[in-house]
Design a protein that fits this description.
This protein is an all-alpha fold and about 80 residues long. Helix content is about 60%, strand content about 0%. The protein starts with a helix and ends in a 12-residue tail after the last helix.
Length: about 80
């Protein structure tokens, strides 16, 4: 849960810096590598192959589509 809370907090901070008081999937994606990469424990095989945690997070972000933002029109 702490990683998720950190991801949301960092995303909200980025949204605020971008002039918004609400969070979008793009905000979360833009902070995900910085928030999540240091939390990964890679296997020896992955380290021997030169894979770093940042690459893993980027591959996950590339593989998982962001949620679709649908704006409610006056409801």
């Amino acid at each position: 849960p702490r990683a998720t809370l950190g991801l949301v907090s960092a995303g909200r901070a980025l949204a605020l810096l971008r002039g918004r008081d609400y969070l979008l999937p793009d905000d979360v994606r833009d902070v995900a590598v910085d928030v999540m990469a240091h939390r990964l424990m890679l296997t020896f095989d992955a380290l021997a192959d030169g894979i770093d945690p940042e690459q893993v997070v980027k591959q996950i972000l590339h593989a998982v589509p962001p949620p679709l933002v649908v704006w409610n029109q006056g409801r």
